[in-house]
TrEMBL record:
<dbReference type="InterPro" id="IPR006016">
    <property type="entry name" value="UspA"/>
</dbReference>
<dbReference type="InterPro" id="IPR014729">
    <property type="entry name" value="Rossmann-like_a/b/a_fold"/>
</dbReference>
<protein>
    <submittedName>
        <fullName>Universal stress protein</fullName>
    </submittedName>
</protein>
<dbReference type="Pfam" id="PF00582">
    <property type="entry name" value="Usp"/>
</dbReference>
<comment type="similarity">
    <text>Belongs to the universal stress protein A family.</text>
</comment>
<feature type="domain" description="UspA">
    <location>
        <begin position="1"/>
        <end position="133"/>
    </location>
</feature>
<dbReference type="InterPro" id="IPR006015">
    <property type="entry name" value="Universal_stress_UspA"/>
</dbReference>
Length: 133
C-alpha cells in the first residue's frame, strides 16, 4: 500500500517518537524509507538548530544508523529552504505514498495551526500525511 514513505526529521523529541511508527510502517508494508532533513534558510529560522548544514548532516547520519539498527534500510536527503515547502516538494519528487511526521505539540488549534510546519504540510502535501502527536 505504501511503496515509498517520506520521514522528515528534525531535532525534536516528537520526530524521535514518530520514528518508531515509521519503522513499523516500513516493515509492515515493505516500503522504501526516505529520510529528509531541511537546513532552514532565511534571517530568522523557526528552528535555529536546523540552520546549520553540519547539524542537519549529523542528524541524518544518526537517524540512518537508528533505522539500520532496526533492520530498515533508508535513503537520506538533505535540502535547504522552508521546511513545509521542501517536504512537499520532495514528497512529489520521490512520488511518496505517505509522509510520516511528528507534531511539536501545539496541536491544530486555529491560531497556531496556520503557522505550523505540520499544518502547512497537511495543506500542501501531494500525498496522505500521518501526524504522530
Amino acid at each position: 500500500m505504501f511503496k515509498t514513505i517520506l520521514f522528515p526529521i528534525d531535532m525534536s523529541p516528537e520526530a524521535q517518537q514518530a520514528a518508531h511508527l515509521a519503522i513499523d510502517l516500513v516493515k509492515q508494508h515493505q516500503s522504501q524509507l526516505v529520510l529528509l532533513s531541511v537546513v532552514e534558510t532565511g534571517d530568522s529560522p523557526e528552528h535555529p538548530e536546523q540552520a546549520s548544514q553540519e547539524a542537519v548532516a549529523a542528524l541524518l547520519n544518526q537517524a540512518h544508523s537508528l533505522f539500520e539498527q532496526q533492520g530498515v534500510q533508508s535513503k537520506t536527503i538533505e535540502r535547504e529552504g522552508q521546511p513545509a515547502f521542501v517536504i512537499c516538494d520532495v514528497a512529489d519528487e520521490i512520488d511518496a505514498d505517505l509522509i510520516v511526521m511528528g507534531c511539536r505539540g501545539v496541536g491544530l488549534i486555529e491560531e497556531v495551526a496556520q503557522e505550523s510546519v505540520t499544518n502547512r504540510v497537511i495543506n500542501l502535501s501531494p500525498c496522505p500525511v500521518l501526524i504522530v502527536p
